[in-house]
Structure formats: C-alpha cells, structure tokens
Amino acid sequence: MTTNDVKKIKKPKVVLSKTSKELKRSRVCKFCGTQRGLIRKYNLYICRRCFNDYAAELGFKKYD
Ligand SMILES: [Zn+2]
C-alpha cells in the first residue's frame, strides 16, 4: 500500500466574471460598509445595526 492509492478528485474551475465581482462588492452595508449581520432581504443591503438606526427613515415601523 502506498500513498499513491489516494484518488485525486478534480475540482471544477470557478470562473470569476465581472458580474460576480460586482456582486461581491455590493454585498456590504450601504451605510457603514460592514459585512456583518447584513440584511439582504428585500434588497436592503443594510447591516442589522444600521437597520435599527435607519429603519424609521426607510419606512419601517416598530411593532412592540
Ligand atoms: Zn451598517
């Protein structure tokens, strides 16, 4: 038994296009530019922190 017995799995090449690059760049918070806690729902692209600050301005109402 040799180490050559290990099967080599070919990985498919990932082609990065311009569009994917743009998508990557836009996946940050509009206001502070962070990627943490980003809300992409409804095309908001706002982090949770900024969402709290700007929710009222964006037309979201708090329901307590
Ligand atoms: Zn933010």
Structure explained in plain terms:
With 64 residues, this protein is an alpha+beta fold. It is built from two helices and two strands; from the N terminus they run H-E-E-H. The protein has a domain at 29-64: Ribosomal Protein S14/S29 (30s Ribosomal Protein S14, Chain N, Irregular), CATH 4.10.830. Strands 1-2 form a two-stranded antiparallel ribbon. The longest helix is centred in the middle third of the chain and has 9 residues, at 18-26. The model has no long low-confidence stretch (mean pLDDT 80). The protein binds zinc ion (ZN). Zinc ion (ZN) binds next to strand 2 and helix 2.
Keywords:
64 residues; alpha+beta; 30s Ribosomal Protein S14, Chain N; 2 helices; 2 strands; elongated; binds zinc ion
What's the short story on this structure?
The chain has 2 helices and 2 strands; from the N terminus they run αββα.
Shape: elongated
CATH architecture level-2 label of the domain at 29-64: Irregular
Report strand %.
5-15%
Overall CATH class of the domain at 29-64:
Few Secondary Structures
**Category by helix and strand content:** alpha+beta
State the CATH superfamily name of the domain at 29-64.
Ribosomal Protein S14/S29
Distance between the termini: 67 Å
Small molecules held by this entry: zinc ion
The CATH topology of the domain at 29-64 corresponds to 30s Ribosomal Protein S14, Chain N
Question: How many E strands?
Answer: 2
The spatial strand order of the largest sheet comes to 1-2
Helix and strand run: HEEH
Low-confidence stretches: none
Name the average pLDDT: 80
Count of runs of 4 or more consecutive helical residues: 2
Query: Over the alpha carbons, how many angstroms does the gyration radius reach?
Result: 21 Å
Largest sheet: 2 strands, antiparallel
Instruction: Summarize the amount of helix as a percent range.
Output: 25-40%
